[in-house]
Amino acid sequence: MDIGFVGLGRMGLAMASNLGRAGHRILAWNRSPVAGDAVVNGTIAASPEEVLGADVVFTMLSDDAAIREVVLDGDLLSHAREGLVHVVTATISVDFAGELADIHAARGIGYVSAPVFGRPDVAEAAQLNIMAAGPAEAIARVTPLFDVIGRRVFVMGEDPRTANASKVAGNMMIAMAMEAMAEAAAITEAHGVERGAFLDLMTQTLFGCRVYENYGGKIVAGDYEPGFRLALGLKDLRLASEAGEAFGKALPMLGAVRGQMQAAADAGRGEQDWSAIAAHLLGS
């Protein structure tokens, strides 16, 4: 299959290359220059318009503004091949997902929201968890491609906004877990408990799950090399706050954790891993 790919950051490059390894022909474009052989079985296009000649196009850009600039402001969709399905895998706002769905429907272009859970190393290992939402026929067409880049696909419904609501809510929960570990470590360290011993206790008993184990390990090691930058995590908490407005009630935990992450960003940690929210409290 001819697959277009827009956005070759660490996540996008890993996903595009895995699709190339599976035998698909990849035509990719990135906003900043990349090497011509960056994508396995791929070619780097001179413009994003070229990419729209593919059967399926994936977009992995950083936020609403980047997608709006590349896809909408330049009227990129006018170059779409008949029958194209556009898959947006980035974490974007719920409202913008709805806007994109309406624009694609008006042009007769398939649209699937498919944000993912997983850091770049998970993308490289083709073990992403994918939340997909959109018309059933469009999802069915791209599911074999999802099977190449991910470990499991969770179909959230036909309204593309449901996938994005699930993603921002999930990222909110990860941020809450990291702040919970930091605050618990602060209490126990104040009473002479070594940080690693405490977090090992928690992950081997009450909280034996991937988020606590992975981010707990980073907190213990003081390893804040960015896999997912804190600045992007802060963006996702803003999206969660905006999505939460539909609930009509205060979300106090979200507000508190967003405030802590903002403080960490203000302290110069925005380019570190988002688990550096813990370093802001613990000092290392």
Written overview of the protein:
The chain has a six-stranded parallel β-sheet, sandwiched between helices. Strands 7-8-9 form a three-stranded mixed β-sheet. Helix 1 links the parallel strand 1 and strand 2. It is globular and about 65 Å long. Helix 7 crosses helix 9 (210-221), helix 10 (230-244) packs antiparallel against helix 11 and helix 11 (252-269) crosses helix 12 (276-282). The protein has two domains: 2-158, Rossmann fold, CATH 3.40.50.720; 165-282, N-(1-d-carboxylethyl)-l-norvaline Dehydrogenase, domain 2 (Orthogonal Bundle), CATH 1.10.1040. The chain is built from twelve helices and nine strands. It is an alpha/beta fold and 284 residues long. The chain has helices at residues 10-21, 48-51, 64-73, 94-107, 120-124, 136-149, 161-190, 195-204, 210-221, 230-244, 252-269, 276-282; strands at residues 2-6, 25-29, 42-44, 56-59, 85-88, 110-113, 116-117, 128-133, 150-157.
Write the layout of secondary structure elements.
Blueprint: E1 2-6, H1 10-21, E2 25-29, E3 42-44, H2 48-51, E4 56-59, H3 64-73, E5 85-88, H4 94-107, E6 110-113, E7 116-117, H5 120-124, E8 128-133, H6 136-149, E9 150-157, H7 161-190, H8 195-204, H9 210-221, H10 230-244, H11 252-269, H12 276-282
Parallel strand pairs: 1-2, 1-4, 2-3, 4-5, 5-6, 8-9
Antiparallel strand pairs: 7-8
Helix pairs in contact: 4-7, 7-9, 7-10, 7-11, 7-12, 8-9, 10-11, 11-12
Active site: 167
GO molecular function: NAD binding; NADP binding; oxidoreductase activity
Organism: Novosphingobium barchaimii LL02
